[in-house]
Amino acid sequence: MTRDPEAPAFPHPHLLGIEGLYPWEISCLLDEAEQWVEAGRRARKHDGRLAGLTQINAFFENSTRTLLSFEIAGKRLGADVVNLAAGSSSLKKGETLLDTALTLNAMRPDVIVIRHESSGAVALIAEKVDCPVLNAGDGRHEHPTQALLDALTIRRRKGRIEGLRVAICGDILHSRVARSNFHLLTALGAEVRAVAPPTLMPAFVERLGATAYTDMAAGLEGADVVMMLRLQLERMEGAYVPSTREYFRAFGLTRERLRAAGPDVLVMHPGPMNRGVEIDSAVADDIQRSAITEQVEMGVAVRMACLDVLTRARRGEG
Ligand code: CP
Question: What's the predicted TM-score (pTM) here?
């Protein structure tokens, strides 16, 4: 489908996932984020276009990067930012998720950012509130701003996404980051590989356009980008790997293993990282190849873009 030049470049009320977005909608958000990368490197970073707007960050699951990043993004744009942190909400007292959503909505926020441990919870809340909702990660489902910041990092480092060979390695079964990245990278024309032990390889990867590899060396062969994922023990019931030591031996990213990849391979990790489990410190800290801290920087820019674009209609900017 081609883009209607009369329609807004991002014609959605919420950002709940990457699945279903057209390539130009993804590119629109990436293009919008570019200005905020430059702005973030200036001494004075304040913009003010969200002045007077209230942003609630409701995080029902732990976070360091995403929560801080959304808070910084909202503040740089001038919004009044309020955080509802994991563990401190009345869900702990038996309130239902929908009652919590109605309570948040009654405070008349202009945008709500939600992280929740259950897949689909963010979409459920979005149906009940009167403002844009951004998904900051729901269960195993999606983490759209993570995929966008990953794409921005790749695009800035490699100059393109189309035609790149990207190996996503590790606990794919439990990963919302992998799922959002499969949708995004295949939409933008990358060749995507899913590299995992059989116990952590979901049946759906081929349907998402990725090729499955259960051998790490074969999966890394000629890769332009290697994206490592941690073992998401909090989402596992029972053991999926014999031990973390055995896992590192077979699937940990070491310098030796990385030799199979392309000469200018970019190493990425969404964090939090478990050194010595899925990635060796020598690779994580390799300033030539590792883009891990750059991903964090791109996260603020991408979230500023998403907050700006999704609140335009409320600000009378169509
Ligand atoms: N990448 C990511 O979502 O990290 P946090 O869990 O710290 O937000």
Answer: 0.95
